[in-house]
């Protein structure tokens, strides 16, 4: 959900607006770190009930902390470990309604209860992941997954 004082309309309209803002924000910039920083700030500002929004960069055989909004986080995550590492290993979005039920969940913030992780690709190859955590169980819906994946597709056009 989006902060209601900032966006009006249906969920689809809200996501279209924030995705359009991302595209405008990143126009004429192709630096990976700068664009990930602005993308995490934009999502953090406009999503309700999230406690961490950020990116991990894929470097060799592990994910390394990148730009984010939230409390300090785990710096390195091995591929295949936790929700983030599993998303890379499976090469797919992970929508986790209850992180405490996810085998091998890595708890960087004890307040997190649900999570969505979306791979970010360049030329079809994962270069990073978008990680969003919430203190609310089942915070992220399949509909939001669809729209967040569209958000990431716009981001991918600028990296």
What this model shows, in words?
This protein is of the alpha+beta class and 159 residues long. It has one domain (11-156): 2-Layer Sandwich (Beta-Lactamase). The protein has 4 helices and 6 strands; from the N terminus they run ααβββαβββα. The chain has helices at residues 11-26, 32-46, 82-90, 142-156, and strands at residues 52-59, 62-70, 76-78, 94-96, 114-122, 125-134. A 6-stranded antiparallel sheet has the order 3-2-1-6-5-4, with helices on both faces. A hairpin with a 5-residue loop joins strand 2 and strand 3 (76-78). Helix 1 (11-26) packs antiparallel against helix 2 and helix 1 packs parallel to helix 4. The model has no long low-confidence stretch (mean pLDDT 93).
Outline of the structure:
By secondary structure, the protein is of the alpha+beta class.
Task: Give the secondary structure arrangement, pairings included.
Layout: H1 11-26, H2 32-46, E1 52-59, E2 62-70, E3 76-78, H3 82-90, E4 94-96, E5 114-122, E6 125-134, H4 142-156
Antiparallel strand pairs: 1-2, 1-6, 2-3, 4-5, 5-6
Helix pairs in contact: 1-2, 1-4
CATH architecture, by name, is 2-Layer Sandwich
Share in helix = 25-40%
- Weakly predicted, low-confidence segments: none
Shape type: globular
CATH structural fold name: Beta-Lactamase
Keywords:
159 residues; 6-stranded antiparallel sheet; 35% helix; alpha+beta; 4 helices; Beta-Lactamase
